[in-house]
Amino acid sequence: MSVPKIGITTFINEDKLTIPTNYIRAVSESDGTPLILPKISKETQIKEQIENIDALLLTGGDDIDPSLFGEDPHPALGNIEPGRDEYELKLIEMALSKDMPILAICRGAQILNVSQGGSMLQDIYDQTESPVIQHQQKAPKSHLSHAINIAQPSLLFDIIGADTIMTNSFHHQANSQAGKGFHISAETNDGIVEAIESTVHKFVLALQWHPEACFATDENSRKIFRAFIESAIE
């Protein structure tokens, strides 16, 4: 059986690209071959990147540029990563056109949703009507800090096999309305969107939490990565 090649996006600073090793470890220990995707601008080269991988992992990072969904910057908007949004939008478009498996995490979930016309909250603490729980936990990254409720039927439910699980949480932005061809498949008890997924592709799953950070200790996180890697083999 061939080992699927998983393209992993990076965080972008002014003069360097970085990636937490948890993403690499989660892919490798789930029997995928991790390949790091540097940001480039030429569409022909981005197409070559897509042609040389079997699945796409969109990682976390800084905030999404609100101009991409028609809004001015909120006072609580954090750092954005110049050029990353535009690069990943092209990656996503090409991957979806090939029905390539995609696992999108935190910031990755947001840029995926925006790419399909979805909306998002620039700051959940200010832009929700009812009080929200803590979504930027102070505990270690591997700690499961709050519950999420998983919809049925959904790909996420099929993977996990439960309608409520615990996750970690490190975000102040979140998806709001799902984009075209997507639906919301998990929320927290305070109504914040925790997962969206495609209704028209075989495996396109976007998670607001960080299963790669819990991979060593949490079976549900391992289930997610195993299902993702297996979808790239089929």
Number of helices: 7
Helix content: 25-40%
Strand fraction band?
15-25%
Which descriptor suits the 3D outline?
Answer: globular
Point out poorly predicted stretches: none
| Sequence of secondary-structure elements | EEEHEHEHEHEEHEEEEEHH
Structural class: alpha/beta
Q: What's the main sheet like?
A: 9 strands, mixed
Strand order of the largest sheet: 4-1-5-6-13-12-11-8-9
- Cα-based radius of gyration, to the nearest Å: 16 Å
Query: Average pLDDT, to the nearest integer?
Result: 96
How far the N terminus sits from the C terminus, by CA atoms, comes to 11 Å
The count of DSSP E runs of length 2 or more, i.e. the number of strands, is: 13
Describe what this molecule looks like in 3D.
With 234 residues, the chain is α/β, with parallel strands linked by helices. It is built from seven helices and 13 strands. The protein has helices spanning 21-29, 43-51, 84-97, 107-115, 155-160, 211-214, 219-233, and strands at residues 5-9, 11-12, 17-18, 33-37, 55-58, 102-105, 120-121, 146-150, 164-167, 174-175, 182-188, 193-198, 204-207. It starts with a strand and ends with a helix.
